[in-house]
Amino acid sequence: MPRGTSRNVLDALRTPHRFPGFLKSASVCVLVAGLLTPLSPVSPATATATATAAAPPATVRQTPLTPPAPASAAAADHCGGRCSDILPPGQNGNATLAQILLHQAFGTRPAHSDDQLGPYADLAARYPALTDATVNSFFHDASFGVPADQVASTVRPAGRTDVTIVRDRKTGVPHITGTTRYGTEFGAGWAAAEDRLWLMDVFRHVGRGRLTPFAGGAPANQGLEQEFWRNAPYTEADLQAQIDSAVAAHGERGRQALADVHAYVDGINAYIDAADRGRTFPGEYVLTGHKDSVTNVGTIERFKPTDLVALASVIGALFGSGGGGEVNNALSLLAAQAKYGVARGTEVWESFRMRDDPEAALTVRDGSFPYAVRPATPQGRALPDPGSVTREPLVYDRTGAATGPSAADASAEAAAHAAGSARRGMSNALVVSGEHTASGHPVAVFGPQTGYFAPQLLMLQELQGPGISARGASFAGLSFYVQLGRGQDYAWSATTSGQDIVDTYAVELCQDDHHYLYRGSCVPMEKAEQRNAWKPTVADGTAAGAYTLRVWRTKYGPVTHRATVGGRKVAYTTLRSSFLHEADSIIGFQMLNDPSHVTGPESFRQAVRHINYTFNWFYADSEHTAYDNSGDNPVRAAGVDAEFPVWARPAHEWRGWDPAANTAEYTPPDQHPHSVDQDYYISWNNKPARDYASGSWGNGRVHRGDLLDDRVARLVRAGGVTRASLVRTMAEAGLTDLRAEQVLPNLLRVIDSAPVTDPAAAAAVTRLRAWLSAGATRTETSPGSKTYAHAEAIRILDAWWPLLVKGVFEPGLGGELYSAFTANLPVDESPSAAHGPTGAHAGSAFQYGWWSHVDKDLRAVLGDRVEAPLGDRYCGGGALAACRDTLLATLKEAAGRTAAQVYPGDEHCAAGDQWCADAIVHRELGGIGHRTVGWQNRPTYQQVVEFTSHR
């Protein structure tokens, strides 16, 4: 699939999803009462625990009730009660077998598994009346420590005396305080396992390409392991080498990071041992056949440091690895050249790509930061001969259930995702300088959009120990440091930037299909291979099956495609700068957690420069704000165009490239976009800065970043910004239909160029105009109604958009080129678009689509000024009257489509249920599910911060 447009396959993961009906029968009670002991407390020999007597038993995490515990010791906290955060659905992501069975039978849920979902969902209806006093009705206090009357439990994991884990009553978040560094990290590992053990286990197997033997052979599981292992086919030696390399490169900090990881893993394994003895481990281990519910026979495999590297490779691939898709780009360029000729076809292609559009919204508004710009005279291009491209197989020797059509479809989808530049480019940030706030202190509302899962991929924690003082969110299994959150007097967050750190090389074959020319010598490819087999379980009834995963590796990366170039046989390979460097970012996160390191904007920038994934980073303290862009941006050879495959020859390699270590020269930090104390910053995966090439297609004048930029600019002009006003701004943007707010006005201008005489079209125009006047939001008529205000207008636009895009562009481009461009960039990503990059029910919407293309073309037809216009005028062939006819014809067709046609229904929603089609569904990665909530286009984890003082 195309650059930046992959549907996130995690949305399809089911491990398990729905359990067989017999578990919902009365026999559940017999199983729970007679055969299981999953609610037994962890042995006091392994975990010393206390809890407040007043706390309800359900809030105590598998610990006995004893007299009240002391509050956790709070570190220096300069937030003054003005730091808040939220992470739905809840902190507790583990459930015993009994709890899973009770949930499936009666709908009960473990404590703290969903208590953050309600406040998160309620903001959509209640935000207009939000004040600073009511912010914490929709967020939770993120101050350090736990007040004495709010302590639910205190645990000394494994009986250690150098660390305590205090959990609060309201959310169950662990507050980990250590008197030694080892103890602190041991506690972090214990808490992570207590909250997310099953999820951590799932993702270490995803990272190793071995999910099906672990969790079952469901087609979605097959696709997931295939997608990630194709691009990161690491051996155990590769994983260990990445640890060794990261440690060796960073001196004392590297050695400390290694010690932290070992302590963290020790904590995880100590919890596994204690939970196994106490039979309090996640019930999914029984349902997937790893443990016996009666005899307790079976094994939960202990963790090791290389598991964390495998897990990190998944997270990095999902959220922090921009670029790729060069083969797809080449195919659409060839289609454009076939249509228009080489010179004009190239210009048309560039106009639709919009790699450096001057009309795009920017995060850093001053300065220029050239990177991956279009070369004047491209060198080394290796475009395929027409019709010669084939995708490299990954799966061989299928047996059993792996031979069926659903398995083949899963493999094809996974291969398409892996071959594209598909990255989950979400998350947003709003940061306002103190010069424009009511308090005189900066205000920030920011967080990552990581999707909606049960349990959540992220988890909350507070870490206090020698050299560590932070609270916030971390990916489960990587929570030895807080990755997004706050320190004593500063906060930080990130959005995906997506700049291109992935290139495609054409290696010329020699001798046979598995030898290639490397710097003049014919050398063999390296075969990475593993056999995966599965059998049916209670959780996944997929019949037994097996297959072999096989990747051919070259010094230029794994092989993704085969083709001919000028008649010569080649393999296309993909090389990313973070390949073999999944562990390198650990140093940057260590610095962000270190209060002695981060003392202001410059030391913050020094920290994020050590992160090799592609992110936009935001910072706020009581006096300053800052922005920086991270990622190992390779320095390309002169004339190399990052958009297309190039020949694998020394003249076209990254400068200073060492193939053994996959290191190269990288652009210096000051050449990355950066800024301090700009009046405000916004980011919603829009273009970071001028001349910094966009990683995704279609980043032009209309982008969802504009929903933030326009609103925050108005706030700043008015002055007196508060936490509440910035949250209201974020919430309103997150409920607004980008197409309606930004493009519909020009659609109506074209239509209004003459009277509308058709009654059906006129009625549709009236509805659309009324919705636009009311703010173009997708909101309920009243809280909980599950019916949209202006529902008919929303239905019409949802039906109209794909029709109008095709009607406007396909006649001029021709079917072949239009199809090629839509393979690079889908036309739509509305909340209900199951065909879109993120899939249905995912929350995130309006990132990828032809909004800018329609906008530029309509403005050109209307005679408006257009910077960097498209290569031609397409709507009506450039004639206003003909364009109007096209719009009215497609509008009338859309208006005639029923709700059931526009919203066809799925496993969650009945056909025609508009609200449900948009709604957010937490994808079940374990045995506990959650209720469907209304749509918001909003970060999953979100902070609201305003520091009142500084050290």
Report on this model:
The protein is 33% helix and 17% strand. It is α+β, with helices and mostly antiparallel strands. It has an eleven-stranded mixed β-sheet with strand order 1-4-5-6-13-14-15-16-24-25-27, with helices on one face. Strands 8, 9, 17, 18, 19, 20, 21, 22, 23 and 26 form a ten-stranded mixed β-sheet that branches. A six-stranded antiparallel β-sheet has the order 3-2-31-11-10-28, with helices on one face. The relative contact order is 0.15.
Topology:
Blueprint: H1 27-35, E1 47-51, E2 83-86, H2 97-106, H3 117-126, E3 140-141, E4 151-157, E5 163-168, E6 174-178, H4 181-207, H5 211-215, H6 219-231, H7 236-248, H8 251-278, H9 284-287, H10 305-319, H11 326-340, H12 342-353, E7 362-364, E8 390-391, E9 395-400, H13 405-419, E10 428-432, E11 443-447, E12 453-454, E13 458-465, E14 468-475, E15 484-486, E16 490-496, E17 502-510, E18 512-518, E19 521-524, E20 526-534, E21 545-554, E22 557-565, E23 568-576, H14 586-592, H15 601-608, E24 615-621, E25 625-629, E26 646-647, E27 674-676, E28 680-683, E29 687-689, H16 705-718, H17 723-733, H18 738-751, H19 759-773, H20 791-813, H21 815-824, H22 851-862, H23 880-895, H24 899-902, H25 914-918, E30 923-924, E31 942-945
Parallel strand pairs: 6-13, 7-29, 12-30, 17-26
Antiparallel strand pairs: 1-4, 2-3, 2-31, 4-5, 5-6, 8-22, 9-21, 10-11, 10-28, 11-31, 13-14, 14-15, 15-16, 16-24, 17-18, 17-23, 18-19, 20-21, 21-22, 22-23, 24-25, 25-27
